[in-house]
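User: I'm curious whether this sequence folds into something compact or stays loose and floppy. Could you predict its structure so I can see for myself?
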Amino acid sequence: MTDVSAPHPTAAESGAAATQRFVTDKPASLAATPKERVDAIAREVLAAVHDTIRKHRVTYEEYNALKAWLIQVGQDGEWPLFCDVWLEHVVEEVAHADRKGSKGTIEGPYYAPSAPELGADATLPMRDGEKGTPLLFQGQVRALDGTPLRGVKCESVHADDDGYYSQFAPGIPQWNLRGTITAGADGRITIRTIQPAPYQIPTDGSCGKLIAAAGWHAWRPAHLHLMISADGYLPITTQLYFPGDPHNDDDVASAVKPELMLELTPAADGNGRQTSYDFVLDPA
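Assistant: Here's the prediction. I'll summarize afterward.
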């Protein structure tokens, strides 16, 4: 049965896991970026900060509070969370503005590569007695001209019915509700899982302190993460959302798009709900 007595994750634990995952999976260096571009972007960012300081007549007390908070973000390991919640949606918007196929959105800090291979008709790994409403997801992946794409990889992950992700919360098996689905010749995929819950980003760390100080909320609407890739095509990283969620209109991460909303119907077998969503990939 699901271990409902498992301790809740702390911001420090989630932050450390997200930071380590980023460092391991996505090593990056400014050395690969031309000096002229670093100079232009850094100068404009700093100028925007300077303008904000002047406009609001920031005091030394507020400046020192900012310094202390920036230091604490690093100590909490929450820079990946901060960037993915408040910055990534604009980077994604700019990076994919010219695509003609399906819409993408942010990856967020809770992705983990190398999820188990499950074929084209998959049931995501779950605990015995996994809480939540059963969900059947079906879709097809096509090229811009409508041709079904064979062998497409679809990595699927989402939070559980308590709003927690495996590998980023204690007491959850490593690959719980994570899997890699490979489309057949018809480009179709089927995923059997449970409907995820909305959740709050960690609020007991530095990001939570910012949210409280600003009077914001910390909620993300329920969503399915899907990362879709095929040889010769641009990959899509997206999240699909559920109608009626109270935070579809005020997602703390600003990642919801109308094109990413699912339609739910009762499952044909009477067990839970079902939905479908097709993807169109741009050529690389």
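Summary: The chain has a mean pLDDT of 92. The CA atoms of residues 68 and 158 lie 33 Å apart.
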